[in-house]
Amino acid sequence: MSTRTNDEIRADRLAKAGQVLTALLAVTAYAVAWLIKRSWRRLLPAYWVAAELAVAWVAGPLGVSWQTVGILALAITATAACWQARSRTVRAWRAAIAVVLGGAAVATVAGGGPAAMAAHPTLTIAVPTALGAVLGWPWWHHLRHLAPPPPPEPVVIDEPVDVVDPLTAHWERRWQNEVVGQGVCAGTTLVKAVEPRTGITEALVRLAPGTKPGPLFKSGVDVEVALDLNEGAVGWRSTGKRAWLRVVLVENSYIATGVPWTGPTYNGGRFEIARFADGSPGEWVVSRPKYGVLGGLVVGSTGAGKSRALGALIANLLEGGVQVAVGDPQNGQSLPAWRDAVEYHPGIEKTTLLTRRAHAEIMRRSQMLAAAGVEAFDANDPRVKALGLSAFVVIIDECQLILIPNTPIVALAEQAAETMRKTGFGIVLATQLPQMKSLGGSVRLRDALVAGNALILRLSNRGSGTTILPDDFVGDPFALQPEIDGKSTAGMGYLRHSNRVGMLCRVPNLDEVAAAAAAPRVPVRWNVPEVDPKSPIVLPGHRAPGRAATTAGGGSAVDRLRAAFGAGGGRKTTSAVVEQVAPLTPAEWVLACLRRGPASAQALLDRPDCPVNQSQLYALLSRLKDAGRITPPAQRGGPFTISA
């Protein structure tokens, strides 16, 4: 039997105690790890409380100031509020714990750190612990009862299908290959196409950066050629955005067989005067609210439907209660059906007096409206109604018979057209020849009229020199033949419209006699008396010409020079303005022009005071050349000169 010493017994006992202690520590560590792993969210406030007490205790020995602890607390608060969580409520409670315990740590460190904890254990230890426990309950309750919703079940699609509009794809391919690929409408992309009616396609076109829409509005003819469409089958519309435009492609025109007249369509200052190729109405704008009354210009060759268009214009104006006066220099041959329906002025002299009276009426209305404080005519304005004013439109057909270049009546018509809008007075001129000479050579008169409306029907004579068509006009009315596929093109042309410029249109088939008989009678009220035919034409701000100046051909040229510069004995006499006398014959006019400098035949035709037409001018130049008075140009189209 062996005996053990006391040291051996104590060593054996210490070894067993160490094993038991090690096992106990292992079990405790495992239990704590399991608890932390399974329920760490429930015990989370305990960690925050322990961290707060540790920071408050070590701040004193380490010499950490309360400002540093405050900055640390703010950083922890920001992290807790921004860190990803189940919901915003979780973030808010987490930030609240950081704020409360961080504030306790800052107060403890500021009060002395360990010394404050030893002196006031209740405030520095017990209170933060209780706050942590209280703040931990809503956290645990929220996480326990508001579990995140289950993820949605994935939708299984057998085969991915790309939905592509076949119409858009068709026109996008054609636009890219046949239009842009041919150098037309560069910088555009067709992004959407719809077919509102059979044979009509409306496409939305996107512009590349730096692409200007102005040239595109004039590219209708090029697009028609590229897509092999008929004349006038392409029209552009503005969408209000610079980078987007809408183009109308007409493969089946609705105006080929004519447009039936269904009666006036006047509504709010607008009415349908033509029908576009896509079937939409082409509107003539008479007036706009608080804007005034607009005029217009109608141009068309003989048999092009100009009288029919004017008939539709008059019928709609009367339907809207607009006062209408018609001037017909052809003594009643232009619009005979409307003789008894409106105030009618046949003959050149009466039409000239009508133009002068219209000018006087515009100036009188301007005074009346200005005195009443009205900036622009509006038929619904009580002040305008109190004055007894209503919309008034004067229509002058064959205006080229009275608007003779270099005559005072042209300046009078210019001033009237430029000032008529705000007075509620509109002027509509109609002519056959597309030359500026038809408007007296006045570009200002043309611009004032086409700023409102312009209906350009079929034209057969391109004219010479400057044209009556607007500078930004789109379309080719000269390309319309008298017949297309055996059908008359009477009434076909182009209507200048804000977003439909360049699309072919057609005037309705109007029975003028029946329309005039059915139209209401609107009495005409003038605010100025009739014009005395013997009175001279005087523009506002100008003096009336003297007797000697107004007498045509009064005295010889020597007498007129003596009257202008004074005659006899160095006496002082007042100088009078002498009107320049035009050459008596076309030959003298040509020679006078060539004395100022060499000029080609086209340059002579471009002059607004050219007294002959193209064929007559070439015949005259040939006679002057044969007579040796002028020298022909060295090459075709060159300038003529006076012979030495």
Automatic annotation (TrEMBL):
A single GO molecular function term of this UniProt record: ATP binding
Keyword Oxidoreductase recorded: no
Protein name according to UniProt: ATP-binding protein
Keyword tRNA processing found: no
Chain ranges passing through the membrane: 20-36, 95-117
Keyword line: ATP-binding, Membrane, Nucleotide-binding, Transmembrane, Transmembrane helix
Lineage, uppermost ranks: Bacteria, Bacillati, Actinomycetota, Actinomycetes, Micromonosporales
InterPro entries listed in its UniProt record: P-loop_NTPase (IPR027417)
